[in-house]
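Ticket #4471: structure output looks truncated?

Reporter: J.K.
Steps to reproduce: submitted the chain below (83 residues) through the standard prediction queue, then opened the result file.
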Amino acid sequence: MGSMSIWHWILVLGVVLLLFGGRGKISELMGDFAQGIKSFKKGMTEEDKAESEPVKTDPKTINHQPAPAPTATVTQTETHKAG
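Returned output as attached by the reporter:
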């Protein structure tokens, strides 16, 4: 039980070849995963560059007329009775 036998090493080698080597579906999956990470990083750097560059816009003026002041019509009449 102290050392690994030849069967252990064969099993480990088979798993490594299955994951990282050959033309298996898992190796294609790992390659697709790596391309996805690269695309994500590229997109993040492009987004950072776009945020850091100031947006060039032409200054435009708006012909603004102030809104007319509301006319307050107070029709309260107070009558005082002299007593």
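Triage note (M.O.): checked the attachment and the full token line is present. The CA atoms of residues 33 and 69 lie 64 Å apart.
Status: closed, working as intended.
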